[in-house]
């Protein structure tokens, strides 16, 4: 961290009045000394600043209110110089001590924020998190601290404190987030075991993108959160918008609708695909179509699809299955015809079903 922690407080506190807090009056020689040290700091004479500021800070540490105020200012200057030469931990220690001796609450809070950054730069990660957390908790206007809120979430995520990061993230009020922040929020919520919150964030931004990966991710999150109807709706929308276009996407669309309790929609997509040649008319596709209509409890469509499957396969089992469905729905004429076909193909079970209808086999 190359930025110095110099805040230029000397002129502010000493030469001008501060309505919220009246700074103790300092002797002229102390004011001159502070300004001289600040000038050396600006001239990058860091070693001289550190030596002089720390000696003076210690000298005034145990005196009256004015002395303690001067000591805090000296330590702040020392912290600036120390951070400039990469001694971040020492700089943070000086700021912490200065903060403890500073009676002005706003200045103390500002120094806490600077200390947090120094602790992080020094590798004192947990201490940095604690100081930034305290700064945010003390901050009067949370809405004006969005940048620092995100900084804390990022630090917590880097330290894999996912649950704490998620709690902090939930408190951030921000009308629109950047892509980087959306990705960070997604990672936090997923690792914290809160896929529903991750999904909520993704759903709010899907209408802004035609990137297939983001739509797939949203659908997977919905599935992971047990929100299968939402996953199906996401996939369906992406399909209709031509965001998803390949064969695997189509079959996933069918599967999701069947899982989501909207099998009729799956069947409609299948029939359209069969009609336009997108899907080959095969035993597999016809069976899936029949199963989808059956799941939707659309009697006419289910029986018609099962009949088409039986006719294609010329399989006794398929004819018997058609007869059983028709029988269950009271379509005895269709059932009888189906059982007769199955009997003709050597199915003994179908003979028993046919007998239950009290109708003799034809021919």
Major beta sheet summary:
none
Strand content: under 5%
The number of helical runs is: 20
Structural class by helix and strand composition:
mainly alpha
- Quote the distance from N terminus to C terminus: 95 Å
Q: Roughly what is the average pLDDT, rounded to an integer?
A: 88
Query: What shape does the CA trace take?
Result: rod-shaped
Q: From the alpha-carbon coordinates, what is the Rg to the nearest angstrom? A: 37 Å
The succession of helices and strands, N to C, reads HHHHHHHHHHHHHHHHHHHH
Low-confidence stretches: 1-20
Helix fraction, binned, reads over 70%
Number of strands: 0
Describe what is shown at a glance.
The chain is mainly alpha-helical and 363 residues long. It has helices at 9-15, 28-42, 46-60, 65-84, 88-100, 105-121, 125-138, 146-158, 162-170, 179-191, 195-203, 212-224, 228-240, 247-259, 263-276, 283-295, 299-313, 316-328, 332-344, 348-356. The chain is 72% helix and 0% strand.
């Amino acid at each position: 961290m190359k930025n110095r922690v110099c805040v230029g407080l000397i002129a502010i506190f000493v030469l001008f009045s501060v309505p919220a807090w009246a700074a103790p009056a300092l002797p002229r020689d102390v004011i001159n000394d502070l300004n001289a040290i600040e000038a050396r700091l600006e001239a990058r004479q860091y070693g001289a600043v550190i030596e002089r500021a720390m000696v003076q800070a210690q000298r005034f540490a145990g005196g009256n209110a004015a002395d303690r105020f001067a000591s805090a200012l000296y330590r702040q200057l020392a912290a600036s110089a120390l951070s400039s030469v990469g001694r971040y931990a020492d700089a943070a220690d000086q700021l912490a001590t200065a903060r403890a001796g500073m009676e002005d609450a706003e200045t103390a809070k500002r120094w806490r924020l600077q200390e947090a950054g120094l602790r992080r730069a020094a590798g004192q990660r947990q201490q940095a998190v604690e100081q930034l957390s305290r700064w945010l908790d003390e901050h009067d206007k949370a809405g004006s601290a969005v940048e620092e809120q995100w900084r804390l979430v990022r630090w917590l995520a880097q330290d894999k404190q996912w649950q704490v990061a998620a709690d902090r993230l939930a408190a951030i009020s921000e009308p629109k987030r950047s892509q980087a922040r959306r990705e960070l929020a997604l990672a936090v919520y997923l690792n914290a075991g809160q896929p529903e919150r991750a999904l909520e964030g993704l759903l709010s931004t899907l209408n802004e993108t035609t990137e297939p990966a983001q739509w797939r991710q949203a659908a997977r999150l919905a599935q992971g959160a047990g929100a299968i109807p939402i996953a199906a709706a996401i996939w369906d929308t992406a399909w209709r918008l031509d965001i998803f276009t390949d064969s695997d996407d189509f079959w996933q669309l069918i599967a999701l609708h069947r899982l989501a309790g909207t099998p009729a929609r799956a069947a409609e997509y299948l029939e359209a695909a069969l009609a336009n040649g997108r899907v080959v008319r095969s035993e597999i596709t016809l069976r899936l179509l029949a199963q989808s209509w059956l799941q939707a409890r659309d009697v006419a469509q289910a029986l018609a699809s099962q009949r088409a499957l039986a006719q294609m396969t010329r399989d006794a089992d398929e004819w018997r299955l058609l007869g059983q469905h028709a029988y269950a729905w009271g379509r005895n004429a269709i059932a009888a015809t189906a059982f007769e076909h199955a009997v003709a193909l050597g199915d003994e079970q179908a003979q028993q079903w046919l007998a239950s209808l009290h109708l003799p086999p034809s021919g």
